[in-house]
Amino acid sequence: MKKLSVRTSSQIEMLDITSQIEKVVEESGITEGVCYLFVPHTTAAVTINEGADPSVKSDILKELDKNIPLQDNYQHREGNAAAHIKASIIGSTEIVPVDSGRLVLGTWQSIFFCEFDGPRTRSVLVKVMG
Ligand code: ZN
User: Fold this and answer.
1) Segments of the chain scoring below 70 in pLDDT
2) Which CA distances in Å does 34 have to 9, 29, 31, 85?
3) Number of domains the chain is built from
4) Of the candidates 112, 100, 119, which has an alpha carbon nearest to the alpha carbon of residue 12?
5) Centre of ligand 1 from the C-alpha of residue 90, in Å
6) pLDDT, tens digit, for every residue of 73-111?
7) What is the 3-state secondary structure (H, E, C) of the chain?
8) How far apart are the first and last CA of the chain?
9) CATH of the domain at 84
10) For labelling, which of 91, 97, 111, 116 has a CA lying 20 to 30 Å from the CA of 57?
11) Which domain, by its residues, includes 92?
12) How far is the CA of 117 from the centre of ligand 1 (A)?
């Protein structure tokens, strides 16, 4: 298991971590299998979506904000209830196939670390299994 450190710079953002994950796959020496990603946080998540057009991630974040407002009489006292809800909706895991030593992603797909309560230093756990 490899632990990647991710430094976020905004309260809410999607960071393309594809190249960092590719590097972990290369270093593992595993050529056929799966790459398992896990975000060990309650206000951050991981997802796969379009990396070519940055407006896609802007739209995703905008719609999440619209549907889960920062303030909505939440019972959670810490003040970050919206971040917890967004993290659960997006999810804390992804699994990507590995073939010929590379991640098998669609042409337009990238792997995004999703920050919902930043900025912070975060972790992503990566396990490559042959
Ligand atoms: Zn909280």
Assistant:
1) none
2) 30, 12, 9, 28
3) 1
4) 119
5) 16
6) 999 999 999 999 999 999 999 999 999 999 999 999 999
7) CEEEEEECCCCCEEEECHHHHHHHHHHHCCCCEEEEEECCCCCEEEEEEECCCHHHHHHHHHHHHHHCCCCCCCCCCCCCHHHHHHHHHHCCEEEEEEECCEECCCCCEEEEEEECCCCCEEEEEEEEEC
8) 13
9) 2.60.120.460
10) 97
11) 2-129
12) 9
d(CA 97, CA 92): 17
Tokens of 2: 């490899």
Neighbours of ion ligand 1 (CB under 5 A): 78, 80
Q: Under 8 Å CB-to-CB from 62, ≥6 apart: which residues?
A: none
Tokens linked to 73:
């009489």
